[in-house]
């Protein structure tokens, strides 16, 4: 399964899910707010809502003869209780691989292959998404298939027990993977005492005890049209697709739902250090930092800072950690924005003997980020000739990456679906506009607010000591 934004804590290079993690990470990082229902005047785009409450966004785009459909449901780990931790993840698996009232799981899989479709789903802290991409001549099949699997699920204890085995295997993999495990510890501490604290894969004892009655109650409550959005991007005629969606989904019964609301995650109040030994050959240093949420204006500065400090061609974090002293083998930084809070994570792989000094240097650098020069405008005189313009370079790289991702209809559809459910301010301007406004003062202000305070979750994974 693909899980967005570290949400299944998949970060291990070489692991078969690593490539999927990177794909999801790019989606979340860029958000693709260049399209919004509120400000779109493009004749190829249309946003509307059915009488049953289903929200739909159409984006006609003839780059490739494909159509991409993404359903997003306003249900995530935030909506689970302590007794149902992991239920959304199981339900996502069940919908994807088990049967409906009309077809078995194998029959659905066969039909999908017969239509040449790519088919997948995601679970996150905030929502669950279900996607299908296929040749444009099979658009009707995709619409009817998604309607059936989402709203006509056939639930049985036998099928649930089979899916539990898959989830429990994923859980064991998480425990054995140092970076996935470290990331889960970061999330649990950054979001401590908040609904986000619950891990997506769940807990072994709860999954084992889960009943079909619990799953069905959850499913019936949240999988209703008014709690869903549908984003369609690709090779179709907008007016024709609008008619199809209304014909196919219009007969779904309207059911009122008042999704629970949650408080914003408070900033971390003090540093947390966790040290673990595992059966590994190298060491891992993972630093987690509280960040701005999906709707906070600081998200734009944090995207730029993440690009400058720990991504791109020449990230600043390389200098203290991988420069002349060569303290680390690899350094990577990312920022994930969720609806009620964000998290910034730095991943460092290193020789175990360098743990103490690397941790010290990384923290020292983070505390200095509120005083660094990020633009040529920050320096005077002849120094301008030699200064690197990190700010403009980061802006250009982000623009380039966004334009690249726009060519992928599925990436656009996923981001649109997320935006429709998570955004609280659809009049806030485009992503490009907000990024373009930023200057070095904005970056230093954001660094002071989030990076320089010393309130980190620091997880160290080192090799087990030989007896």
Key words describing this protein structure:
467 residues, alpha+beta, Cytochrome Bc1 Complex, Chain A, domain 1, 2 domains, six-stranded mixed beta sheet, 16 helices, 11 strands, 41% helix
What does this structure look like?
It is a single chain. By secondary structure, the protein is α+β, with helices and mostly antiparallel strands. 41% of the residues lie in helices and 18% in strands. It is built from 16 helices and 11 strands. The protein is globular and about 65 Å long. The protein starts with 17 loop residues before the first helix and ends with a strand. The N terminus is likely disordered.
Number of DSSP helical runs:
16
The CATH class of the largest domain turns out to be Alpha Beta
Rg = 23 Å
Which fold name is given in CATH as the topology of the largest domain? Cytochrome Bc1 Complex, Chain A, domain 1
Structural class assignment:
alpha+beta
Beta-strand percentage range: 15-25%
Count of strand segments: 11
Identify the CATH homologous superfamily of the largest domain: Metalloenzyme, LuxS/M16 peptidase-like
Helix content: 40-55%
CATH architecture of the largest domain: 2-Layer Sandwich
Mean pLDDT reading: 87
Strand order of the largest sheet: 1-2-6-3-5-4
Overall morphology? globular
């Amino acid at each position: 399964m693909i899980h967005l934004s570290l949400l299944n804590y998949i970060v291990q290079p070489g692991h078969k899910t690593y490539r999927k993690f990177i794909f999801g990470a790019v989606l979340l990082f860029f958000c693709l707010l260049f399209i919004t229902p509120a400000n779109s005047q493009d004749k190829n785009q249309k946003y509307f809502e059915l009488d049953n409450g289903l929200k739909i966004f159409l984006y006609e785009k003839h780059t490739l003869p494909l159509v991409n459909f993404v359903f997003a449901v306003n249900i995530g780990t935030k909506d689970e209780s302590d007794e149902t931790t992991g239920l959304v993840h199981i339900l996502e698996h069940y919908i994807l691989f088990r049967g409906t009232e009309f077809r078995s799981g194998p029959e659905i899989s066969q039909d999908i292959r017969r239509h040449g479709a790519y088919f997948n789903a995601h679970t996150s802290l905030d929502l669950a998404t279900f996607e299908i991409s296929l040749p444009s001549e099979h658009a009707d099949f995709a619409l009817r298939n998604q309607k059936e699997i989402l709203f006509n699920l056939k639930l049985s204890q036998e099928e649930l027990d089979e899916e539990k085995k898959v989830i429990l295997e994923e859980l064991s993999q998480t425990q054995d993977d140092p970076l996935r495990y470290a990331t889960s510890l970061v999330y649990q501490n950054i979001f401590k005492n908040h609904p986000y604290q619950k891990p997506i894969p769940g807990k072994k004892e709860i999954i084992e005890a889960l009943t079909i009655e619990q799953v069905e109650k959850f499913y019936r409550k949240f999988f209703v049209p008014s709690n869903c959005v549908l984003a369609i991007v690709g090779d179709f005629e907008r007016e024709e697709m609008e008619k199809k969606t209304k014909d196919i989904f219009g007969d779904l019964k309207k059911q009122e739902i008042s999704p629970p609301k949650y408080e914003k995650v408070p900033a971390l109040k003090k540093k947390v250090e966790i040290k673990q030994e595992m059966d590994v050959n190298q060491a891992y240093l993972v630093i987690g930092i509280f960040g701005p949420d999906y709707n906070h204006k600081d998200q734009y500065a944090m995207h730029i800072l993440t690009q400058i400090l720990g991504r791109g061609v020449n990230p600043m974090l390389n200098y203290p950690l991988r420069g002349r002293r060569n303290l680390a083998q690899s350094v990577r930084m990312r920022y994930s924005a969720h609806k009620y809070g964000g998290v910034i994570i730095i991943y460092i792989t290193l020789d175990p003997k360098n743990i103490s000094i690397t941790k010290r240097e990384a923290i020292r650098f983070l505390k200095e980020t509120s005083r660094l020069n990020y633009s040529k405008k920050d320096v005077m005189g002849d120094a301008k000739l030699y200064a690197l313009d990190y700010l403009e370079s980061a802006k250009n790289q982000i623009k380039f990456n966004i334009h690249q991702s726009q060519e992928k209809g599925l990436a656009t559809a996923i981001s649109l679906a997320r935006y429709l459910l998570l955004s609280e301010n659809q009049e806030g301007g485009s992503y490009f506009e907000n990024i373009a406004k930023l200057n070095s003062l904005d970056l230093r202000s954001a660094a002071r607010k989030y990076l320089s305070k010393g309130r980190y979750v620091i997880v160290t994974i080192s090799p087990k000591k030989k007896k």
